[in-house]
Amino acid sequence: MRQIMLEEIERDPVFDVVVIGGGITGAGIFRRSALLGFRTLLVEQKDFAWGTSSRSGKLVHGGLRYIKQGQLNITYHSVREREKLLKIYPLLVKSLRFTIPVRKNKLANKVLYKIGLTVYDLFAFKRTYSFQKEPCSPLIRNDVEGCYTFQDAITDDARLTLHVIKEGIFHGGIAVNYTEAMFLDRSSSPKTLILKERTKGKELEVKTRAIIIASGAWSDYWDPTLPLRKLRGSHLVISSQKLPLETAVALIHPEDRRPLYAMPWMGHTLVGTTDLDHLESLKREPKITEEEVNYLLDAIKFWFPEVKLTKEDIISTFSGIRAVMYTGKKDPSKETRDYIIKRLDEGIILVTGGKLTTFDYIARKILKELKPLLTSPQEKKIVAIDFNPPETDSIENILYSTKEEMCVHLEDVMIRRTRLGLIRKDRGLPLLEECKPKLKKIMNWSESEWQQEMRNYVKTLQNYSLPQ
């Protein structure tokens, strides 16, 4: 499929819209543009969802904490979009019951939770919250007298991103991963963009009327004047045998009072998230630090003291980089999570910030911004399409993803398509050996190429593991 896309670019390199960036924001814009009938191309320099869109907290949520910060506009639009996504993608975006434990003699907290949840439900146009006098988990600390419960949603962010891209392809768009936008001639009309396909090093020249840059934390490459603040959010994947949860649990860290959560995810328990300035180069893949591991474990130990969690119970970790606008706030968590749209030139728009939940809202805004420049030939009807892999065993999923989902490397299959590299203690290495003959045939790899792919995958896993 990927080769067909590249050949189509060479056959007809003229587009209405080119989207740079294959995360959820770029995917959403690509899908919307294709639905409007524009000939649309999406390019991603690494794999689809390689960046933040495979390393988010997996929540499709309104952002309850933003109410406390006065960011009501973000919460309102996020809640409304959450409700839409639950209807559009019922197999990918699923309702998630959240609980907030309330400790004895914490009346002020109880009142604040009630006010916040009332506003949250008003935005959703439905009542979901309630208070129950039983602890939210038998493992919770014994001074918890009850809990609030409310409704949010959960997704597999990488799978959702890929699905949205597939929808754009279904409606006539072209999308290629491992293809970098190298040079942009802003003076030409239409705009000229030089692309480089990274597996073979071949350069492609395309023409387009409009370019939308949705490269997230890498946005300042295109506009160095952007006041971007890059924040790292790290997570732990913990054995559900050690910390079994029936609902997601919203927690407050005992040290700095930051909101955290623990929730069921893919048969395990996901704990997140930190919120720290990421000062390292984005040329290196982000990974969790020892301090972050201890920070998250301390929260779990405080709220679930009987669990006696240790580092040996951690199956994997992952860290993503959020791009937010720097406003001078000392606390990273208080920076706005709103998006910014900036016109760099006639027909060139950059978008950054925003949330996973609001990807389609942002896409609609972007396409509206381009309306004076582009005349849509014929808007297409949105239809529900099932692009999900068959619900079979792990080996069948590996083979399906490798063959059908534009994978270039083993890490694409194991970390973003199937998640086996995150949810198995053995990281799926025995499965790969079992699949080896078929995978080599599908990818047309020699034995030496296979060995190199395995070495690269094992090396990549270090970024999804505890610090050495």
From TrEMBL:
Belongs to the FAD-dependent glycerol-3-phosphate dehydrogenase family. GO terms for molecular function: glycerol-3-phosphate dehydrogenase (quinone) activity. Its cofactor is FAD. Signal peptide: none annotated. Residues 16-354 form the FAD dependent oxidoreductase domain. Its EC number is 1.1.5.3. It is an enzyme of class 1 (oxidoreductase). Keywords: FAD, Flavoprotein, Glycerol metabolism, Oxidoreductase. Pfam families: DAO (PF01266), DAO_C (PF16901). Residues 393-449 form the Alpha-glycerophosphate oxidase C-terminal domain. InterPro entries: DAO_C, DAO_C_sf, FAD-dep_OxRdtase, FAD/NAD-bd_sf, G3P_DH_FAD-dep. The lineage of its organism: Bacteria, Pseudomonadati, Thermosulfidibacterota, Thermosulfidibacteria, Thermosulfidibacterales. GO terms for biological process: glycerol metabolic process; glycerol-3-phosphate catabolic process. This is Glycerol-3-phosphate dehydrogenase. The keyword Nucleus does not apply.
